[in-house]
């Protein structure tokens, strides 16, 4: 059972909360997000609007894109970023994640993948991340791959190193190993939302990140868009797997959606903005998927305010009650302990 946060520091980030980043998982993903190349002009306008609004962190991965479109997200992000003037381009942080596919072995296993990602990103790559842990199924693979990424940092090929889908115990081990090499572990990216609050539970990775000075990044902060809906009738449903998941979670998520709507009304904001600011109130930077300029406007608008401590605690209670009742996002099967 997931336990609610306890002890000092559970509201880390208050007063100096993290910003909001942009996720690009949907750029090139046909299976879950219905991507079509004809959407590229809208995605370019979305990127430009996000930059205009001060959103400066963009996250992608070399595995993003369905089938023959694998790498499409990086390609589009690199293309859009290259269209900026050099001074504006320099203000952005572009982060990618490299997948530990079974054929990527040894300390040099990521060399070609890193070079390919940097090429798709037009040379602008600031943070490289191990996409997921192999601890559960190939524990011998993870260490050498991470050392290879640390080599890239020490050789000046990339500025910073992060990890993703790592649990608290393994996070401490990796941090200690990299510290011995003199390579800082910059960030940890995990699934975190009101429908997946494990990271901010007692003993979760959020507390470890605060202790070790690791930046916490929250992916899927809106639970595949579900937390952006209003309570009541579930219509229309998104197509495919997202719709099936929404249908299963819909009855149990009603108290959370009602609370998001109520808190949002008090701040003249949307429920989605409240969900993003809940992550920020826990010291995590949410990376929200953007596909339209209007979505960029809404995401940036959440930066103008913060939820109060009592509001955050109310949402904590609802989130952990929902999780205990089985209303929660599926866990990432590759996340380590």
What descriptive keywords fit this protein?
337 residues, 12 helices, eight-stranded parallel beta barrel, disordered N terminus, TIM Barrel, alpha/beta, single chain, globular
The side-by-side strand order for the widest beta sheet comes to 1-2-3-4-5-6-7-8
Backbone CA Rg: 19 Å
Provide mean pLDDT, rounded.
93
Strand content: 5-15%
- What overall form do the CA principal axes indicate? globular
The termini sit apart by 15 Å
Structural class: alpha/beta
Quickly count the domains.
1
Poorly predicted parts: 1-15
Number of strand elements: 8
CATH C-level class is Alpha Beta
Main sheet attributes: strand count, strand direction, barrel closure: 8 strands, parallel, barrel
CATH superfamily: NADP-dependent oxidoreductase domain
N-to-C SSE series? Answer: EHHEHHEHEHEHEHEHHEHH
Number of helices: 12
Care to describe what's here?
The chain is built from 12 helices and 8 strands. The chain is an alpha/beta fold and 337 residues long. It has a single domain (21-324), classed as Alpha-Beta Barrel (TIM Barrel), CATH 3.20.20.100. Helix 2 packs across helix 3 (72-82), helix 2 (40-52) runs parallel beside helix 11 (293-301) and helix 9 runs antiparallel to helix 12 (309-324). It starts with 20 loop residues before the first strand and ends in a 13-residue tail after the last helix. Mean pLDDT is 93; it is low at 1-15.
């Amino acid at each position: 059972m997931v336990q609610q946060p306890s002890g000092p520091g559970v509201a880390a980030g208050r007063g100096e909360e993290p910003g909001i980043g942009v996720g690009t998982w949907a750029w090139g993903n046909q299976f879950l997000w219905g991507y079509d190349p004809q959407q590229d002009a809208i995605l370019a306008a979305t990127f430009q609007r996000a930059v205009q609004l001060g959103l400066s962190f963009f996250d992608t991965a070399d595995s993003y894109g369905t089938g023959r479109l694998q790498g499409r997200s990086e390609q589009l992000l690199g293309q859009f970023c290259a269209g900026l003037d050099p001074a504006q381009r320099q203000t952005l942080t572009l982060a990618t994640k490299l997948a530990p596919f079974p054929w990527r072995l040894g300390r040099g296993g990521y060399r070609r993948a890193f070079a390919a990602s940097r090429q798709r990103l037009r040379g602008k790559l600031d943070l490289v991340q191990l996409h997921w842990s192999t601890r559960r199924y190939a524990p011998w693979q993870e260490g050498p791959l991470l050392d290879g990424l640390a080599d890239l940092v020490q050789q000046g090929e990339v500025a910073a190193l992060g990890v993703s889908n790592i649990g608290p115990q393994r996070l401490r081990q990796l941090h200690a190993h990299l510290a011995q090499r003199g390579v800082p572990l910059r960030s940890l990216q995990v699934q975190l939302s009101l429908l997946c609050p494990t990271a901010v539970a007692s003993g979760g990775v959020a507390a470890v990140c605060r202790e070790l000075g690791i930046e916490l990044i929250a992916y899927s902060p809106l639970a595949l868009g579900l937390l952006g809906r209003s309570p009541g009738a579930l219509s229309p449903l998104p197509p495919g797997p997202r719709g099936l998941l929404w249908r299963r979670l819909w009855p149990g998520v009603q108290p959370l959606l009602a609370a998001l709507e109520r808190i949002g009304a008090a701040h003249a904001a949307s429920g989605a903005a409240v969900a993003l600011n809940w992550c920020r109130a826990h010291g995590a930077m949410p990376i929200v998927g953007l596909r339209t300029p209007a979505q960029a406007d809404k995401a940036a608008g959440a930066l103008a305010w913060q939820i109060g401590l009592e509001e955050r605690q109310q949402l904590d209670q609802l989130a952990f009650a929902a999780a205990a009742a089985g209303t929660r996002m599926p866990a990432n099967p590759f996340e380590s302990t």
